[in-house]
């Protein structure tokens, strides 16, 4: 029987396909580019690849505006290319997880085009969320709700009605009370599962179920995303969403092994477990470390709480430090921490908005801490999600010219937000070439000159490189894994020290002074050791 629990402690590598590898010199990464890099992924030592959206899209939101859920964007390849990529990954022993975007389609989707061509109250419009406006002649939106990307969450169509879009106006929200919508996504999940997909990452998993009974609440009356506790918000984290995922779980369990799923659910920690239940998606992203500064007490608090939560639900925990939506952690850790009393850590957005000038970035410190945090994270029980380029120690790119930016948050929030393009800049594979080996031509987002020294070809020749550090860490992690447990060991306040089953230990020095290492042989460290001392901002694994 195939292992149904492969995902519980997997190392998963996120590929943002348009920025990974370009096989045909058109400036966009593509599926044949991923296939060509499977040997690199195998050598890195990951267990699975999570592929961000590769569907036909106008790229109003980096591919998360989907025109057709059962096709490949022609600029990225074909279904045959997808099959070749999946086969190559599986031949290398690497599982494949794909992104599913069920909260909204693109405004170019056949269903939405049909809705626009159909009258008010039609079955075509009922697949989405259309409402009459308020004010004189319905000229005002149905409510004052704001889109996550800025501006009104409602867009008016020529006949006067308005449709809901919690994100970009090009991303109309589906009506999940409509049986057609539910059936359509079951068909899509089966389509990709039958093609060999091993699991799904569910985008905006907490927003599908909605209660838009009138009168609609005002923005001032709504809890912020992630803060509601009662499941009663009109569109975030409603209890009814779990009825949808229970139906999905029945489909997933028809396969051998069962298809996996992980929820992107920005919800209060006390409500995350329902998404990760065995009767639902099975796993949910824990973004707590991603939102924390490099601080021993905060890390320990987060780790303890999430392991307790995972034990209570029967799921495994997930650990994330970077992804396609946030400033890379090598950069965040090189900036001053968030002000005292802040509930979240330094997110780097102000630094990006300044063009990378304010506050001052200590690149060396940021990378040193990033390596230490990564080695600690990889020692934790549960799944580790890595974002492409972090194994190269890449920093966020802040100084992208405005004319080259693509993220809708930049255009919808002028003067407020520079967007997420800085973590989506194409990877450098070689130290030379018009796009550092990303492709034979230029890249769709400009790469900084310092990417040359971070290129794969350069790092493979450097025994102390971040790439080789990651390869060794992932190799050891696979050999050392045991039951999903840890025991905290006594240590100074600025040090985190724990033991995994089998005697494997991880110790991280968050402080400012070197500390003595306990007895044991050093398996790996995030930076050079000082004799028998562990320097600041460094993690070591001991046997």
How many distinct helices? 14
Structural class: alpha/beta
Spatial separation of the terminal alpha carbons = 33 Å
What is the strand tally?
Answer: 17
* Silhouette: globular
Helix content: 10-25%
Classify the beta-strand content into a percent band.
5-15%
What is the makeup of the main sheet? 7 strands, parallel
Going across the biggest sheet, name each strand in turn.
8-7-3-2-1-10-9
Give the averaged pLDDT, no decimals.
96
Low-pLDDT stretches are none
Provide the gyration radius in Å: 23 Å
In brief, what are we looking at here?
With about 550 residues, the protein is of the alpha/beta class. It is built from 14 helices and 17 strands.
Structural notes for this entry:
The protein is built from 14 helices and 17 strands. Helix 5 (179-194) packs parallel to helix 6. Helix content is 24%, strand content 12%. The mean pLDDT is 96. The chain is globular. It has helices spanning 31-36, 38-44, 79-91, 110-116, 179-194, 241-252, 296-313, 329-332, 349-353, 363-379, 408-412, 451-454, 456-459, 466-480, and strands at 11-15, 48-51, 95-100, 130-131, 154-156, 162-164, 199-202, 260-263, 318-320, 383-387, 487-488, 495-499, 505-509, 515-516, 522-525, 533-534, 538-542. A seven-stranded parallel sheet has the order 8-7-3-2-1-10-9, with helices on one face. A hairpin with a 5-residue loop joins strand 5 (154-156) and strand 6. With 543 residues, it is an alpha/beta fold.
